[in-house]
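Anyone up for a design puzzle?
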């Protein structure tokens, strides 16, 4: 007899263990919660550990953005051996005597900052004619891959073992960056073979693995306690500014209809006074916002909309299918953000431009 599944909504921060695929870890947690629907915000290799954003129910509608986010990794590079996968799961294909020094390593790391080109490894989930490259690699087939431009925002050496010829590095990278390929490229620049033997994801955007629980810890909690530990659905969009609607406006928004927020003459005249990262200028035409219903119980998350600044119109873009639990106050963003109410009488961290 199949186990009953519930329509659970929320977000779990999971510290994925090594040896499981991201989907295997997700399915274990989903079964523990008896959740009907789940997804994650960015795959980790089975060998890798670290932060995996797990979205349940309505939260799956908003997890996609975190596939595009910058991510921070701590990884260990072994010099002197290359593998056919670029990591410790592969077969060694080349070895060499090495004498890399920390000074030499520190000297080459700046070369990898900024925009660089990477050729995706054959052992990757990219597809060729509908077939994953890792499957082709298992069949002994190698195909040409187009270089990709990625951005390395941070690259630093945090530990070096000269005797073992190993270095622990930390990097913050843009979407689509392959850490295995990065390690191999560092080795090539130093003139030695190299591969990754440990990889941990520290952060996805503003979300840190420090706040995550291990899979064992999640599954050790009674199901009802596990659900109580889930973050609210709107956690995934708290990087966006917020607008609260009254019940009539919210009804229109929930049914996919645009909502007029204010008169056109004033809608574009707000300019930022904060470091929130929200850029709002008179020349801009639209701004993505998170939207709430303000009622007698507090604020209920409705979804994400696009605010047409000059027209003063809010258009639904992604809407939750049901009213979620209310919060007594409008949830603030992760970090320093801006919040408006529906009448724009309470404008925090913004001023009117002259």
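Challenge accepted. My sequence:
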């Amino acid at each position: 007899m199949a186990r009953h599944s519930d329509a659970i909504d929320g977000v779990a921060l999971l510290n994925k263990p090594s040896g499981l695929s991201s989907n295997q870890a997700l399915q274990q947690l989903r079964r523990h919660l008896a959740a009907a629907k789940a997804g994650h915000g960015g795959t980790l290799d089975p060998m890798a550990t670290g932060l995996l954003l797990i979205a349940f129910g309505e939260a799956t509608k908003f997890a996609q953005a975190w596939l595009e986010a910058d991510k921070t990794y701590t990884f260990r590079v072994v010099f002197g051996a290359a593998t056919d996968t670029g990591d410790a799961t592969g077969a060694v294909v080349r070895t060499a005597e090495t004498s890399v020094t920390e000074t030499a390593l520190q000297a080459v790391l700046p070369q990898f900052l900024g925009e660089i080109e990477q050729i995706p490894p054959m052992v990757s989930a990219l597809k060729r004619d509908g077939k994953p490259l890792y499957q082709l690699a298992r069949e002994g087939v190698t195909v040409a891959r187009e270089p990709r431009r990625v951005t390395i925002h941070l690259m630093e050496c945090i530990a070096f073992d000269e005797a073992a010829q190993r270095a622990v590095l930390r990097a913050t990278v843009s979407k689509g960056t392959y850490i295995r390929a990065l390690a191999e490229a560092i080795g090539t620049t130093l003139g030695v073979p190299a591969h990754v033997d440990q990889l941990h994801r520290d952060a996805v955007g503003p979300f840190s693995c420090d706040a995550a629980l291990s899979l064992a810890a999640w599954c050790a909690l009674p199901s009802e306690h596990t659900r109580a530990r889930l973050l609210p659905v709107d956690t995934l969009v708290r990087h966006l500014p917020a607008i609260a609607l009254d019940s009539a406006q919210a009804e229109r928004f929930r049914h996919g209809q645009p909502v007029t927020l204010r008169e056109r003459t004033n809608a574009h005249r707000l300019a930022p006074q904060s470091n929130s990262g929200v850029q709002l200028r008179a020349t801009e035409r639209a701004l993505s916002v998170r939207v709430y219903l303000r009622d007698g119980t507090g604020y209920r998350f409705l979804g994400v909309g696009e605010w047409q600044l000059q027209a003063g119109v809010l258009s639904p873009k992604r809407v939750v299918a049901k009213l979620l639990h209310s919060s007594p106050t409008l949830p603030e963003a992760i970090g320093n953000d801006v919040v408006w109410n529906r009448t724009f009488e309470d404008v925090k961290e913004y001023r009117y431009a002259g």
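A detail worth pointing out: Residues 22-33 form the longest helix (12 residues).
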